[in-house]
Task: inverse folding
């Protein structure tokens, strides 16, 4: 087993982000990765979390140990995305609190766990879509009443055209137009799931997607 243990600590903690070689009581060596960050930071944006992907790509690790899957992202969508991506890279995620593992001893995927993760992700996507749809509906009503300020008194807000013109956003829209799912479009274009949902909703409002 080539393992790493990932630990997220709060940004107010006295400790610092670091990577250390450690050994279990059975003498098994593993890399302890401590990440100091805010809880609302997505997994891929954390300094030491990036090294987890790097180690997975380089075959340095095949197992990731965590106290709870909650440390693997800022919300349900981010957590399930992290688990799915690392599992696809051949990394077995083992969680102590939830008593789960994503790969079986023969290297095959733990289908029951992945079905649960996909279900959670789908429900989270639906909740995010409904939230954004409610916001958009509120904006439309406010515009009709003449009570909506596009920038709220803050920095200028991008127009739909400017927002979609961004390279990754534009690519995401193209994938959505091809019929790809929100999650697949986000992965192919390199945007977050939240951004992919926003692009879909804005595109529907502006007639780019029927």
Result:
């Amino acid at each position: 087993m080539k393992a790493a243990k990932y630990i997220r600590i709060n940004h107010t903690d006295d400790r610092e982000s670091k990577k250390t070689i450690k050994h279990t009581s059975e003498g098994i060596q593993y890399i302890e990765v401590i990440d100091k960050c805010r809880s609302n930071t997505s997994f891929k944006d954390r300094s030491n979390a990036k090294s987890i992907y790097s180690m997975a790509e380089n075959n340095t690790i095949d197992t990731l140990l965590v106290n709870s899957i909650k440390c693997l992202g800022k919300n349900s969508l981010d957590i399930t995305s992290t688990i799915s991506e690392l599992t696809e890279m051949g990394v077995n995620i083992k969680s102590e609190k939830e008593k789960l593992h994503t790969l079986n001893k023969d290297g095959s995927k733990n289908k029951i766990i992945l079905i649960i993760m996909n279900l959670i992700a789908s429900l989270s996507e639906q909740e995010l879509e409904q939230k954004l749809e409610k916001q958009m509906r509120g904006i439309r009503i406010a515009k009709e009443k003449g009570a909506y300020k596009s920038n709220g008194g803050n920095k200028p807000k991008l127009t739909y055209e400017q927002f979609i013109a961004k390279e990754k956003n534009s690519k995401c829209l193209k994938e959505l137009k091809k019929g790809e799912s929100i999650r697949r479009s986000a992965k192919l274009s390199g945007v977050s799931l939240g951004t992919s949902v926003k692009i879909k909703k804005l595109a529907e409002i502006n007639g780019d997607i029927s």
